[in-house]
Design brief:
Elements: E1 2-6, E2 10-16, E3 30-36, H1 38-48, E4 53-59, H2 61-73, E5 78-82, E6 89-97, E7 103-108, H3 117-127, E8 135-139, H4 150-160, E9 164-168, H5 171-177, E10 184-185, H6 189-196, H7 203-215, E11 220-224, E12 230-234, E13 237-243, H8 255-267, H9 275-278, H10 284-300, H11 308-314, E14 319-322
Parallel strand pairs: 1-4, 1-8, 2-6, 4-5, 8-9, 9-10, 10-11
Antiparallel strand pairs: 2-3, 6-7, 11-12, 12-13, 13-14
The structure holds 1-O-phosphono-beta-D-fructofuranose.
1-O-phosphono-beta-D-fructofuranose binds next to strand 2, helix 1 and helix 8.
GO molecular function, one term: phosphofructokinase activity
Organism: Adlercreutzia muris
Keywords: ATP-binding, Kinase, Nucleotide-binding, Transferase
């Protein structure tokens, strides 16, 4: 079973604006609600790939209730810890066409409710129930009140019980979690460049920075590079390079989370149509990268998280080049 933890989940309120100006009332042309936060998105996509996934983390107030109802209505079981005060945040995602026809995306993410030690201890006890068949996915920013080493601590608790752990976060929350030897971390090329002080467009430097994360404890480092695709790196270096299929960006929210879910589902053996003919005898990690790339791109080309069918449709035009 995959247990995803989102410390600060969100109702994602998507607005399409014909135009936007500061300091005046702007009106949207269309709105849509999604149930988000990175781990929630990962659990939703894993469920679409037929995997056993449960969404956990912290919720609060009526927005928290709405989030759980929405996620469960989509068929994803939830096991959130309810906070005594506050409201689960609402993140506003604004999309507006630029003069050249491309899409401008602006996000305003709320700060979210404060999480105290009692709630953290409750979550930790749930993680201590995981076993060697399970995988813990820790995704997204930490909520107010969470210690910077929370992911490191939860990852260590999972490891003590034999569960695999995936960490998708940034900064010190990511580097501290490496001590628990996570199975996978998924920085993007810009986050890696910031950590290493290099240029995000310099593939060799990004691979070296990713290899350093692997040498510091991560089994695999999956580097998402936006429209340029993704790189899969381990302690020896570049394993495979994948090119994202061509398509028009409709929504980048959840694209990275879809990539994580596709990669994990690929390794777990999710067989979308065409696996055998596309990757005869392919190494599992290479197929997983391909499924991850197709999933990330399918979400980027759809108004919200992609369906398994949309991911399947992109697999034949998603190319991965093994590098060792
Ligand atoms: O504020 P965080 O935790 O960094 O990111 C939260 C968020 O932007 O990430 C998801 C997309 O990856 C959205 O569903 C959500 O609103």
């Amino acid at each position: 079973m995959f247990l995803t933890v989102t410390c600060n989940p969100a109702l994602d309120w998507m607005m399409r604006l014909p135009a936007f100006a500061e300091g005046v009332t702007n009106r949207s042309a269309a709105d849509d609600l999604s149930y988000g936060g990175k781990g929630v998105n990962v659990a939703t996509m894993l469920h679409r790939f037929g995997q056993d996934a449960c969404a956990s983390g912290f919720i609060a107030g009526t927005t928290g209730t709405a989030l759980v109802e929405g996620v469960e209505a989509a068929g994803v079981p939830c096991d959130f810890v309810r906070l005594d005060a506050g409201q689960t945040r609402i993140n506003v995602k604004m999309k507006r066409p630029r003069a050249d026809g491309s899409l401008e995306e602006t996000e305003i993410n709320g700060c979210g409710p404060a999480v105290g030690p009692v709630a953290i201890a409750t979550l930790r006890r749930r993680i201590e129930r995981l076993g060697s068949d399970d995988c813990l996915v820790l995704s997204g920013s930490l909520a107010p009140g969470c210690p910077a080493d929370l992911y490191a601590d939860l990852a260590a608790a999972a490891a003590e019980h034999g569960a695999r752990c995936v960490v998708d976060t940034t900064g010190t929350a990511l580097t501290e979690a490496l001590a628990a030897r996570p199975f996978l971390v998924k920085p993007n090329n810009h986050e890696l460049a910031e950590l290493a002080g290099c240029d995000a467009a310099d593939e060799a430097a990004v691979v070296a920075a990713a290899r350093d994360l692997a040498r510091a404890g991560a089994r695999f480092v999956l580097v998402s590079c936006g429209a340029a695709g993704a790189l899969l790196v381990d302690a020896k270096g570049l394993i495979a390079r994948g090119a994202a299929p061509a398509g028009a960006l409709v929504n980048s929210v959840g694209a990275g989370d879809s990539m994580v879910a596709g990669f994990l589902a690929g390794l777990a053996g999710a067989s979308l149509p065409g696996r055998e003919s596309l990757c005869p005898g392919a190494d599992d990690a290479v197929y997983a990268l391909r499924l991850g790339l197709a999933a990330g791109s399918a979400t980027a080309f759809s108004p919200s998280l992609a369906s398994a069918g949309q991911v399947s449709d992109l697999l034949p035009v998603t190319f991965v080049e093994p590098c060792n």
